[in-house]
Inverse folding.
């Protein structure tokens, strides 16, 4: 290869991902890699051998190809947005003509489709947490503590599983989220994701009970002492954390099954099948419900944003699931008295 214009689509993507890997979290790089893998495979099927062959018609045909496969509108939006960023990189290294990225069409998506409709409803979360707090046989269990921490802090899965015992400050009632990529627990927003988050006494009581009675003593492969530990004395993996959360949020934990299954024989109660329960929720759904709950409880947007490490714009667009009526009643009506004329 004598010039960047001679790059193949595959080599161009490889260079782009190598460059972005220093700026993005591992999970974001994985997402970019998957999206651009589809682009590379399509280019190879179409016999596009060098990036200099790309033009507006190329991008139009790729978008039509992916849309024709019946993928969801937000998925197509994300793929074309990632492709546009890749082409902007190619412009910068002079592998393609300036202005080519403008020819990548990123389709608009209705706001209702862009938002994540599934969440752990705040009222359901409160019922579950009350149950865990008032029943000795589950108090301080791993299911209890991950729900307490996730719903109370609104933190992401990666931030929670990356917590060490040293990051939890019981006496001062707060936890620290720290970016530690060198020992395989990065934060999504890297150093800018680092923060201290205050905890209520009752949340600390639950974590204290977990540490004292339910947490196995353990160290990970890097000599760190994780807060959340499996029965095999390892730091909980992302997949295991998801399974724990699915189990923790099943409504039959605190009441009757809304789907009329027999709790004693229901397959969904097993570790491997919990995600298939129609009412169980993933960590991201708990984060969405938590952010909505924070806002409904009167947390200012800027305080919520700092607490959960997301911009106000992202919270409004993707996480805050309150209806217009709920926003009026819970957030604006309490301020109505300020408008009285004496």
């Amino acid at each position: 290869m004598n010039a960047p214009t001679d790059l193949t689509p595959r080599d161009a993507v490889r260079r782009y991902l190598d460059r972005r890997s220093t700026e993005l979290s591992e999970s974001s790089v994985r997402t970019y890699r998957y999206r651009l893998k589809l682009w590379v495979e399509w280019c190879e099927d179409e016999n596009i051998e060098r990036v200099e062959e790309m033009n507006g018609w190329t991008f139009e045909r790729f978008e039509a190809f992916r849309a024709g496969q019946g993928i969801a509108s937000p998925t197509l939006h994300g793929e074309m947005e990632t492709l546009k960023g890749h082409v902007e990189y190619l412009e910068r290294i002079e592998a393609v003509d300036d202005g080519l990225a403008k020819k990548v069409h990123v389709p608009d998506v209705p706001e209702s489709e862009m938002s994540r409709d599934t969440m752990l409803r705040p009222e359901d979360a409160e019922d579950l947490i009350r149950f865990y707090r008032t029943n000795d046989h589950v108090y301080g269990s791993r299911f209890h503590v991950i729900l307490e921490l996730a719903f109370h802090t609104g933190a992401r899965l990666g931030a929670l599983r990356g917590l060490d015992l040293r990051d939890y400050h019981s006496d001062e009632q707060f936890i620290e989220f720290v970016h530690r990529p060198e020992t395989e627990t990065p934060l999504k927003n890297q150093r800018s994701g680092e923060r201290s988050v205050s905890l209520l006494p009752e949340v600390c009581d639950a974590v204290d009970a977990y540490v004292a009675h339910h947490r196995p003593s353990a160290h990970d492969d890097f000599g760190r002492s994780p807060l959340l530990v499996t029965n095999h004395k390892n730091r909980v993996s992302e997949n295991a954390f998801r399974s724990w959360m699915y189990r923790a949020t099943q409504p039959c934990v605190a009441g009757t099954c809304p789907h009329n299954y027999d709790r004693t024989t229901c397959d969904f109660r097993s570790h491997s099948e919990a995600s298939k329960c129609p009412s169980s929720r993933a960590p991201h759904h708990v984060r969405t419900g938590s952010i909505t709950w924070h806002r409904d409880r009167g947390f200012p947007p800027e305080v919520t944003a700092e607490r959960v490490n997301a911009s106000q714009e992202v919270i409004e667009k993707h996480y805050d699931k309150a209806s217009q009526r709920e926003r009026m009643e819970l957030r604006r009506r309490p301020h109505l008295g300020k408008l009285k004329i004496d």
User: Anything to note?
Assistant: The CA atoms of residues 9 and 48 lie 8 Å apart. The chain has 14 helices and three strands.
